[in-house]
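Whiteboard transcription, Tuesday session. T.W. wrote the structure tokens on the left side:
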């Protein structure tokens, strides 16, 4: 049995040596550039075909890994670009907001400089109810800042209302567009004199104030300026209310009814000034 096993080993060694010599012959023949015979061509083509079959899965896997890494890098870059884009949009919106605030503050300061004879207290609107949008606003100044009930409140465009409720550091302002706003004395500039009347209410559909009690028969042109008279204890004189839009007469043709376009935009109130009345100021 030992001899039989040794014989098999010898046969295996002989086969390996023979196969190696066979490959060596083929390699030498291929190294020297000569025309291959039919058997050699079949062998070479088979070798190339088998190599492609064996290598194809590895190449596919390699390509898929490379594609995955490329997609992963592109997704990461896209997310970075999106974050940068969002940040740019946020900064642009913030810049627009700050520029708008600066513009409004400049307008408010410019207005204050024209009211040299009146003492004003600048304030910021801190609250406004949606269900009472044209009724009241809240500001960040109160009793501790010198605000007193009844003081007039303006913005850079004109008169907007009067102080109603007061806290230590905040106040509620009744707007001229409020349903409960009291009548105020106003005057219309006509040529070299004034026509006097009462601002009695606000028409929200037409966006106009209604002026009544004008008995003067003078012709009142459109765009005539309407200001406060300073009569009474509430408003100083000369605060801009608006401009005349339309003039009609009452049912008895005895008095004029004047529609006035508000000077202030009541939809957009951010910064206001509380006007302190000078009791010694002659209206």
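and on the right, the sequence the group agreed on:
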């Amino acid at each position: 049995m030992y001899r039989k096993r040794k014989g098999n080993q010898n046969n295996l060694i002989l086969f390996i040596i023979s196969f190696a010599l066979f490959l060596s012959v083929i390699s030498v023949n291929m190294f020297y550039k000569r025309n291959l015979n039919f058997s050699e061509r079949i062998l070479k083509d088979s070798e190339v075909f088998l190599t492609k079959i064996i290598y194809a899965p590895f190449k596919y896997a390699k390509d898929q890994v490379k594609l995955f890494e490329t997609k992963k890098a592109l997704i990461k870059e896209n997310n970075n670009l999106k974050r940068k884009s969002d940040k740019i949009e946020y900064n642009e919106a913030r810049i627009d907001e700050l520029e708008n605030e600066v513009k409004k503050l400049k307008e408010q300061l410019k207005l204050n400089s024209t009211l040299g004879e009146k003492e004003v207290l600048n304030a910021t609107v801190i609250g406004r109810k949606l269900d009472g949008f044209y009724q009241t606003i809240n500001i960040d100044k109160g009793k501790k800042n010198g605000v007193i009930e009844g003081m007039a409140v303006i913005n850079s465009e004109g008169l907007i209302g009067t102080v109603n409720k007061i806290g230590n550091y905040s106040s509620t302002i009744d707007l001229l567009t409020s349903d409960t706003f009291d009548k105020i004395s106003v005057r219309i500039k006509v040529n070299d004199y004034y026509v006097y009347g009462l601002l009695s209410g606000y028409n929200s559909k037409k966006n106009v104030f209604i002026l009544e009690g004008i008995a003067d028969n003078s012709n009142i042109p459109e765009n005539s300026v309407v200001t406060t008279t300073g009569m009474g204890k509430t408003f100083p004189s000369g605060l801009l209310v608006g401009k005349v839009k339309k003039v009609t007469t009452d049912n008895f043709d005895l008095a004029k009814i004047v529609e006035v376009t508000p000077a202030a935009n009541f939809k957009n109130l951010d910064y206001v000034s509380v006007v302190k009345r000078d009791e010694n100021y002659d209206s």
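Someone added at the bottom: The chain has two helices and twelve strands.
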